[in-house]
Specification:
Largest sheet of chain A: none
Number of helices of chain A: 9
Strand content of chain A: under 5%
Distance between the termini of chain A: 67 Å
Radius of gyration of chain A: 20 Å
Shape of chain A: elongated
Oligomer: homodimer
DNA sequence: ACTTGACTACCTACCGAAAGGTAGGTAACG
DNA sequence: CGTTACCTACCTTTCGGTAGGTAGTCAAGT
């Protein structure tokens, strides 16, 4: 009762546990997407959330464990976005457009500053533990599977070339978007990524 | 005369100055391509080359200055490779294949471990100084210009679609290769990147 | 021919800051 | 009374970077 949080002026102990943990993950994700894993520290997290650095260890025993937890959450959230697209009755081409928009929005909603979480971590793969690296690979796998479905759908409904429904093409689409995000982030911004995605779809359609 | 280098058993002062500096850049490039900029330290460099950490500062005043010098060297070397491809009398499609091979070879010659130097640094862009960031952008610019030339050439000689000779398509090609390198490095290796590149060229050709 | 002084390429020893992480305590909740 | 969510205080290691010294090279001056 008498103890007041200096930051938000609400009684500390009335705040649900999950909030701080989720906030830490939010900040961690933000920082990794902007600066990269090795340019982010526990001090950055604790300062942003308003707790002490040591208290972060109450939620995550180590940095690698935190990244692992972050990847778990991210995989689930991204999986839901993929399912949402795949569950619609849109054409394959429209699905692919919506999928590309996920990447464009990452850039346009952040002042052209954020990369893909897994894209950043792919570059810093050797700083991850086995579980973290496996989750990054799981991200790649679930994405290519989703894209493959879209390509197959597009081949059936006539919105995309029928013969592009291959695993390799799905990998190519993912590579283009991940690379495009990386490139556009440090050069032409979301407009550039949007152009790249349009050109990609155009090639797969005609 | 009497003073002997512990490492190579050659008189220290008969060894040309440039060697140590170049060796440091070699090791730095290797480490950045494998682990990333922020996972590499001056101690890593000095240990690999066989001098003391403080002596690295004799060659490079700071870490950012070292990365800047590394990027300068890399830009020049990569520029020569691009010129070599563009100066040949091959078809546009063949040129594009050779260009893609530059990325595939990075992976296949390193046990699927190395990424593109500028690809890694694009992810860690905020850890660079202004000059370094400018050089990364110069890398992107010179690459897209080169690819654009290849696409134009391919449009003329009939080996590629005539209407793909746009800046946007060149950006797309670069994005696919940078992203493909990133993806293949942590999943399917050089074979996967080779497949992605083949599929890309196929789309641009037919 | 001999000395001088600038220069190069290292060295040892050290600095403050920041990193990830630990130990042990406290206050509220159920 | 145990659990949760924090705290202060402190640890070791590593980071980029600095100060100051030493041995050898080399060209100019006398």
């Amino acid at each position: 009762m008498g103890v007041i949080d200096r930051q938000c002026c609400l009684p500390i102990h009335t705040m649900p546990t999950q909030n701080t943990r989720e906030k830490l993950l939010d900040v961690a994700q933000e920082l990794i997407q902007r600066r990269g894993l090795n340019a982010m520290s526990f001090r950055d997290l604790s300062d942003s959330v308003g707790i002490r650095k040591a208290s972060v260890h109450h939620h995550f025993a180590s940095k690698t464990e935190m990244v692992d937890a972050l990847l778990g959450r991210y995989l689930q959230q991204f999986g839901e976005l993929l399912d949402e697209i795949l569950a619609s009755r849109a054409s394959g081409k429209t699905m692919l457009k919506r999928y590309c928009d996920l990447f464009v929005q990452t850039l346009s909603s952040s002042g052209n500053d954020k990369g893909c979480l897994c894209g950043m971590l792919m570059a810093e793969l050797l700083s991850l533990n086995d579980s973290g690296a496996a989750k990054v690979r799981a991200f790649l796998s679930s994405n290519t599977m989703a894209v493959e479905s879209m390509l197959a759908r597009g081949g059936e409904d006539g919105s995309l070339q029928p013969n592009v429904s291959t695993k390799v093409t799905a990998w190519m689409v993912l590579a283009t978007l991940e690379g495009g995000l990386l490139v556009a982030r440090c050069d032409g911004g979301h407009k550039q990524l949007s152009d790249i995605a349009s050109r990609l779809i155009q090639l797969l359609a005609k």
